[in-house]
Specification:
It contains 18 helices and five strands. It is an alpha/beta fold.
């Protein structure tokens, strides 16, 4: 499944979050990669071990942020052991990043890791994210003209058109949340039965079965293949009501620019596909150039009434130009 091929697990020490790991996670997501990162994917009340186990079992690559703090902590070492095991059974591969360490340091504490090519955090977050994203190239499944057609449909029409857009957005939001709720129940039942260290020898047949269950639920809910679909905890009922209210205002173009930007960012933060929910377009359908313009268009649409959708129309012209149109 394409979504699984693009799933990145970030293993790191807590002390490195604010200085490097959080900006890196956001930069990877902006490049169309699906990211499991504790700050994104753990919710209040989650079982930390169970959630991390699930993230490790489902990832296609493990980004390991190697630092003095990483090597001093027990839990990151256990994550690394699990990633080594997953690599042996061809479930994932390890992508090291050296953060405030050099070759001599890594060779002293982990000769196996020192022998691998590693990205250098000293090059900056954007450069490191680009190096990782280059290994998972995204193809444009839609032309700029096709994307423009969708955006124009969302920026016109009367009151009934606004109601129809809002209903569609709300339906897709609830659909994704329902998938998460059902899959989490299945996965939690599995991980509850595993020993604390079972992931180090995670059964291949169980891994395949979980993948089949995930695919079954995706199809049952009618969710397209290229949607950004994670198996972390669903949004709670009270929080859902707040999102649905904001989505309704977004569909009417009645938000301020700041509120629209916050809605788009919040949907991303809770691991819901903002492109699919708001536009009906799966997240993994765009090239990196298209994604940059679409993110700005999402925000502009939510505040479209304020400027008569002029910014949306301008971005549509830029999308057309990506096709080579003049």
């Amino acid at each position: 499944m394409q979504a699984k091929r693009n799933t990145i697990f970030i293993s790191h020490a807590f002390e490195d979050q604010e200085t490097f790991v959080t900006p890196l996670a956001h930069a990877l997501k902006r490049r169309g990669l699906q990211v499991w990162y504790s700050k994104f994917s753990l919710r209040l009340g989650d079982s930390i071990r169970r959630s991390i186990d699930r993230g490790l079992a489902e990832c296609s690559a493990g980004v390991v942020v190697l630092s003095p703090f990483f090597f001093a902590k027990e839990w990151p070492q256990r994550e690394l052991d699990a990633l080594y095991t997953a690599e042996v059974v061809v479930r994932s591969r390890i992508l090291p990043i050296w953060h405030e360490v050099d070759l001599a340091y890594v060779a002293r504490v982990s000769p196996l890791l020192a022998d691998r090519y590693a990205a250098q955090s000293s090059k900056g977050v954007d450069q490191v994210a680009a190096e990782i994203a280059d290994q998972f190239p995204a193809s444009a499944l839609l032309t700029g003209k096709e994307l423009t057609s969708v955006l124009e449909r969302f920026s016109g029409g009367g009151p009934f058109a606004e109601e129809a857009r809002a209903a569609g957005c709300a339906y897709r939001f609830l659909l994704m949340n329902a998938f998460k709720e059902e899959y989490c129940e299945i996965a939690d039942n599995v991980f509850d039965k595993l020993a604390e260290d079972a992931l180090e020898d995670f059964p291949a047949e169980l891994d395949r079965w979980l993948g089949q269950e995930r695919e079954r639920l995706r199809q049952e809910h009618g969710i397209p293949e290229n949607v950004y679909l994670t198996s972390d905890e669903p949004v709670g009922e009270q929080q859902s009501e707040s999102y649905l209210e904001a989505i309704n205002s977004w569909a009417a173009g009645a938000l301020s620019l700041q509120d629209s930007a916050e809605l788009v960012a919040d949907l991303d933060r809770v691991e819901l596909d903002e492109y699919y929910i708001l536009l009906g377009l799966p997240n993994f359908s765009f090239s990196s150039e298209q994604r940059d313009l679409l993110e700005r268009a999402l925000i502009a649409l939510g505040a479209g009434v304020e400027d008569g959708y002029k910014e949306v129309f301008r971005l549509c012209e830029e999308l057309r130009l990506l096709d080579g149109d003049t």
